Amino acid sequence: MILLSLLLSVLSLPAAPARAATPGAVVSAQPTTVYLLPGRLLEVPVNAWHLLYNSTTATGAPNAVSGTLLVPKSGYPLGARPIVGYAVGTHGLGDQCAPSVSMSQGREAELALVSLFLLKGFAVVVTDYEGLGTPGPHTYMAGISQGHAVLDSIRAAVQVPGAGLSGRAPVAVMGYSQGGASAGWAAQLQPSYAPELRLKGVAAGGVPADLRAVANHLDGGENFGLAAAAGAGLDAAYSELDLEADLTERGRALLADAADDCVGDFGKLAGLSFSDLSPIDLLGQPKWLAR
């Protein structure tokens, strides 16, 4: 009876709270192959893994992000092998647009640039960003989310079994366009978010730093699809924006149709303006200005 009473008392205890996901922890690391040309031609001679790792959303919630780690097969003679966190430019909104997908199919244009680092013996980890290759919408141009995804991809890289990477390795971050914004946010966030990383340098090009100025420039132009995608991405990151509530029926239909598009399909929105999507001045709304 005493043992039974003890067992019942243990079973009646409240469950222990779930352990918070550690940013950068590897959820899975599956060997993969990457190619330079369509049709899976010209295999890149590296050890490669498709990663799923823990990260953090723009509002501080845990999430999971995918990416690809590339490590040269030859040794690195100068100490710990350097790691480059590479942030790609705009790829699109659908999972099929993710760089991990395009690299495995031989249609990733930026792989040629990535290869320059590999030829120097550096490891390169390429994040897919939040929602691009994982469930949920892509938080396109939500800088905090993108910066977290880049930094946590580097954290994950050093934990991959067989990759031979060190947590004390020198680290660099590089990106252009969306990737430039991501690299800039990674640099800004690193001291507080990932202080253990030995970040030695950041190269950020084509940075859309002032999103409102960029949106005004794109409004009504042939690249308006980029502005619309950014609106959808920020709305995915910050629920209080509630973009759908401020759209016309036509606006909702247009954005729903573009929700899974890759960047090459954004041209369907060419020539449109925010006024074609909403009856209010979206860019002038305080909730948007705050983001």
UniProtKB/TrEMBL annotation:
GO BP annotation list: lipid catabolic process
Keyword Signal: yes
Keywords: Signal
Superkingdom field: Bacteria
UniProt key word ATP-binding: no
Molecular function via GO: triacylglycerol lipase activity
PANTHER family: LIPASE 5, PTHR34853
Name of the molecule in the record: Lipase
